């Protein structure tokens, strides 16, 4: 079993939760303690989780490989698969390091084997937190070129396609949960309406002298507030952001009109009965206009 060739890399699982995206791509050099809601301000906790999940996923694939891998050989094969060379190949293929936010004095060491492993583990930890072990097992099984990946559980729709009394056939290479029950994944953060940030986007290297990192983007219920995420992203990329506000109508029933101006160009316009609502809408429009995320309507 070996790592996959560049032409056969599986699709990278998406992270759809804004808080997790921000946590994954925030290096510990930007650590600012912990936010008021108890969330982590860097990717170290996710990396610790992802390290254990990755080991489990690779071990599971080796266990299910045919011909059978002897018990004594599983750790040896696993270490080969998780070599520094393979970790670097995976991180570079998925352009993960290009999106990492870190202090400028780490520019010469940010691509060290240790840093790349931490970043990959953090991403894996976030996918596990969001989607559970099944998503990891499928992705890693294909990533390492497993000869046999455990089949996934048959869905109700698939069962309906078979006649009563027949045992449904499963594709040889379909992923599945391991035969040994796994512990349930941690409860994921509330799903948000924020679309996934585009992976592979060329991240501008931060050059600010004293990086100050705000807490992860706030959310209320299932609605993500774009304003803090947009302002944070612009700050890290040294973009100048201004909000020009105008009020029209009677004092008791007027509306706010706000323009979000980035480096002198209008990128978003928002309206609302309150200044905060209008500012949030302007920031949301600017977020997608700047290419920070694919617009989903």
UniProtKB/TrEMBL annotation:
Stretches for region Disordered: 150-194
Keywords assigned by UniProt, alphabetized: RNA-binding
Domain of life: Eukaryota
Alphabetical GO biological process terms: RNA processing
Domain RNase III: 14-132
Segments of skewed composition (Pro residues): 178-189
SMART domains the record matches: DSRM, RIBOc
DRBM domain: residues covered: 222-292
A GO MF term: RNA binding
PROSITE patterns: DS_RBD, RNASE_3_2
Name listed for the protein in its UniProt record: Uncharacterized protein
Lineage: Eukaryota, Fungi, Dikarya, Basidiomycota, Agaricomycotina
């Amino acid at each position: 079993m070996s790592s996959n060739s560049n032409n056969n890399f599986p699709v990278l699982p998406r992270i759809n939760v804004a808080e997790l995206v921000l946590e994954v791509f925030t290096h510990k050099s930007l650590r600012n303690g912990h936010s008021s809601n108890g969330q982590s301000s860097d990717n170290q906790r996710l990396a610790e989780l992802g390290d254990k999940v990755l080991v489990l996923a690779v071990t599971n694939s080796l266990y299910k490989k045919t011909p059978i891998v002897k018990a004594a050989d599983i750790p040896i094969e696993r270490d080969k698969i998780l070599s520094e060379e393979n970790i670097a190949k995976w991180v570079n293929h998925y352009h993960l390091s290009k999106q990492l936010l870190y202090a400028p004095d780490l520019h010469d060491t940010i691509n060290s084997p240790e840093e790349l492993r931490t970043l990959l583990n953090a991403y894996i930890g976030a996918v596990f937190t969001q989607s559970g072990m099944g998503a990891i097992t499928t992705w890693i099984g294909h990533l390492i070129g497993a000869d046999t990946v455990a089949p996934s559980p048959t869905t109700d729709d698939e069962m309906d396609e078979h006649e009563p009394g027949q045992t449904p056939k499963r594709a040889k290479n379909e992923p599945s949960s391991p035969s040994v029950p796994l512990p349930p994944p941690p409860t994921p953060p509330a799903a948000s309406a924020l679309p996934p940030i585009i992976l592979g986007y060329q991240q501008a290297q931060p050059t600010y002298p004293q990086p100050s990192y705000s807490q992860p983007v706030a959310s209320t219920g299932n609605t993500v507030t774009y304003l803090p995420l947009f302002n944070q992203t612009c700050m890290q990329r040294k973009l100048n952001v201004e909000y020009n506000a105008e009020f029209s109508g009677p004092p008791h029933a007027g509306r706010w009109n706000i323009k979000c101006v980035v480096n002198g160009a209008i990128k978003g316009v928002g309206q609302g009965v309150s200044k905060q609502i209008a500012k949030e809408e302007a920031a949301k429009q600017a977020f997608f206009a700047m290419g920070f995320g694919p617009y989903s309507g």
